[in-house]
């Protein structure tokens, strides 16, 4: 009975995943996904799917088939209320928990994202259990049925009790064999994501929300591809500094913009902690495209060409729409770095554009 219920539940989860896949573009743009991320699970509201379950009632309350009644009698009495009943149908929501790995798989299937091929040497190691031997004692959950049967068969033949016409083999306790394990060290490719964001006066709350949602999906996809990953955060206006994750998403300053300050801070961070021979490096910059001068834009291109792009797997520039920004920096990148294999750009004017932006950054499997 339990096995049947488990199969029903698995089938239900497949239905849920199907609904999420169908509406993935909508889910990608919903900010509440991020707020419910938790440590390992993320909750996604799915409309109009009810999980089958038993409902228990109070038999003493009467009902159909209980008590006096005749054919045609009304069952139960309605209560009188004030006002007129509504005619609009209700919307039923159910919170469904998916692991971030499951969510990344759905993202990859829908956007047709290829697996990322890590580069560089293996720097970190993780420990895992490997079942590599057999022992005579152990829990029933690790019993090796084939080996146990072979031991019982050998004993039966050796004692002369084996009858080919009636080959009944009954294992005894001394025949039982169990899987054994040992801890092994497994090398893993590791990566660092450096998120850079313009926090000048032209970047308002709407722009920050776009950055927050897109960077969540970037982080989710890269963590699916790497066992060891670190995230670092840099904010800038006319100067740049490294901050923690909470500050990155909530800081707002009022001032001008000098994008080269962020790229210089990023270079210093990589030089100090992340050798390209040991790390897979992903750089993402979010801005409204407003910069202090053409001279600084040329300085940005020089830093990218000479230092950041040679070290990185990918540099992604995402320009978010703002009523106050000039939006010209993406044109500078197109002029000087168009066709560069490690440089990708996208424009996000609204939440609906996040779907295509993610596909732009990872569609080639960098």
Would you summarize the structure shown here?
By secondary structure, the protein is of the alpha/beta class.
Q: Which blocks of ≥5 consecutive residues have pLDDT under 50? A: 121-127
CATH architecture of the largest domain: 3-Layer(aba) Sandwich
Question: Looking at this structure, what is the CATH superfamily of the largest domain?
Answer: von Willebrand factor, type A domain
Kindly, what is the distance between the CA atoms of the first and last residues, rounded to a whole number of angstroms? 47 Å
Mean pLDDT score: 77
Described by strand count, sense and barrel closure, the largest sheet is: 6 strands, mixed
Global structural class: alpha/beta
Q: What does the overall shape look like? A: flat
Fraction of residues in β-strands = 15-25%
Q: What is the name of the CATH topology of the largest domain?
A: Rossmann fold
Q: Write down the Rg.
A: 30 Å
Strand line-up in the sheet with most strands = 7-6-5-8-9-10
Q: What is the helical fraction, as a range of percent?
A: 25-40%
Count of separate structural domains: 3
SSE sequence, one letter per element: HHHEEHEHEEHEEHHEHEHEH
Supply the number of helical segments: 11
The first-level CATH class name of the largest domain: Alpha Beta
């Amino acid at each position: 009975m339990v096995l049947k219920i488990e199969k029903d539940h698995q089938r239900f989860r497949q239905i849920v995943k199907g609904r999420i896949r169908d509406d993935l573009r909508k889910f990608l743009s919903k900010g509440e996904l991020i707020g419910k991320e938790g440590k390992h699970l993320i909750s996604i509201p799915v409309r109009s799917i009810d999980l089958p379950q038993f409902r228990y009632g109070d038999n003493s309350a009467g009902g159909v088939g209980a008590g006096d009644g005749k054919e045609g009698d009304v069952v139960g009495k309605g209560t009188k209320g004030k006002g007129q009943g509504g005619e609009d149908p209700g919307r039923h929501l159910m919170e469904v928990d998916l692991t971030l790995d499951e969510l990344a798989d759905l993202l990859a299937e829908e956007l047709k994202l290829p697996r990322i091929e890590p580069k560089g040497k293996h720097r970190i190691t993780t420990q895992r259990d490997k079942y590599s031997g057999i022992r005579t004692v152990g829990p029933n959950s690790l019993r090796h049925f084939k080996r146990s049967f072979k031991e019982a068969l050998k004993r039966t033949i050796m004692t002369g009790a084996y009858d080919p016409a009636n080959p009944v083999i009954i294992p005894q306790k001394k025949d039982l064999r169990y899987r054994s394990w040992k801890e092994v060290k497994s090398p893993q490719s590791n990566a660092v994501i450096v998120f850079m964001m313009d926090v000048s006066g032209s970047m308002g709350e709407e722009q920050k929300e776009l950055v927050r949602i897109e960077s969540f999906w970037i982080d989710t996809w890269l963590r699916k591809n790497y066992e060891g990953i670190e995230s670092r955060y840099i904010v800038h206006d006319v100067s740049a500094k490294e901050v923690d994750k909470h500050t990155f998403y909530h800081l707002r300053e009022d001032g001008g913009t000098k994008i080269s300050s962020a790229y210089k801070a990023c270079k210093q961070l990589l030089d100090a902690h992340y050798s390209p021979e040991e790390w897979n490096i992903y750089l993402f910059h979010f801005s409204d495209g407003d910069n202090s001068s053409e001279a600084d834009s040329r300085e940005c291109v020089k830093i990218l060409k000479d230092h950041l792009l040679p070290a990185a797997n990918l540099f992604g520039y995402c320009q978010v729409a703002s009523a106050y920004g000039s939006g010209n920096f993406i044109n500078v990148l197109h002029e000087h770095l168009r066709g560069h294999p490690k440089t990708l750009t996208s424009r996000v004017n609204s939440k609906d554009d996040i779907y295509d932006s993610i596909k732009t950054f990872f569609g080639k499997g960098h």
